[in-house]
User: Which sequence fits this backbone?
């Protein structure tokens, strides 16, 4: 399975929606840097995340905290540490980065 | 000679790249030289104004703290795009600076009134 990483805000770049178009059931999407804005609760993009139940979503906690979104991330997203990011890259077959 | 009214338009989110920081530095420099400057946060630029930012673990300066210096530098006129706040579900209570929410039409009027526009 592929680990997809997205590092751009979905509000001003198509990386996130492009990623979802090519994402298959069972794969994982990790939101990093400005990509974490896709996880903001109650927005169009977090709704997309909630509708893709067959994909596992993660967000990098340090990037979420920096952007003031600690309490604003959709419950369908798992917050992970830097070392868990490393673990995800080794437990997946390959990494596709959308930037 | 009457000073020019400068309007700085910020449309980038903080931290992902250096642009938001560069724009804020520019505003502070203008403030230090007593220039008449107003600032407008539009689109993803509104993310700059949100509270609870904690950038310690990404080794970057806290953008919220940088913006809090505006008042000290005589920059008291700031605006945020109301539509951008709604799209991002940002409550006005989450704004870290005393920025006035205004709609896109009011913003375009402000753009018209300024003598100089800087968009970052």
Assistant:
């Amino acid at each position: 399975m592929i680990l997809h990483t997205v590092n751009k805000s979905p509000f001003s770049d198509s990386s996130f929606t492009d990623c979802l178009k090519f994402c298959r059931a069972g794969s994982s999407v990790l939101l990093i840097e400005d990509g974490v804005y896709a996880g903001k609760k109650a927005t169009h993009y977090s709704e997309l995340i909630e509708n893709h139940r067959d994909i596992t979503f993660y967000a990098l906690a340090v990037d979420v905290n920096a952007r003031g979104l600690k309490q604003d991330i959709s419950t369908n997203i798992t917050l992970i540490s830097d070392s868990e990011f490393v673990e995800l890259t080794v437990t997946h077959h390959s990494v596709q980065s959308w930037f | 000679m009457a000073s020019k009214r400068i309007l700085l338009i910020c449309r980038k989110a903080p931290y992902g790249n250096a642009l938001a920081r560069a724009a804020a530095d520019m505003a502070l420099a203008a403030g230090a030289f007593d220039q008449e400057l107003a600032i407008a946060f539009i689109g993803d630029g509104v993310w700059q104004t949100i509270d609870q930012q904690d950038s310690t673990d990404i080794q970057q300066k806290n953008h919220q703290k940088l913006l809090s210096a505006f008042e000290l530098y005589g920059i008291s006129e700031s605006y945020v795009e109301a539509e951008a706040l709604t799209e991002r579900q940002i409550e006005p209570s989450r704004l870290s600076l005393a920025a006035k929410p205004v709609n896109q039409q009011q913003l375009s009027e402000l753009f018209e009134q300024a003598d100089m526009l800087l968009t970052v």
Observations:
- Chain B has a mean pLDDT of 95.
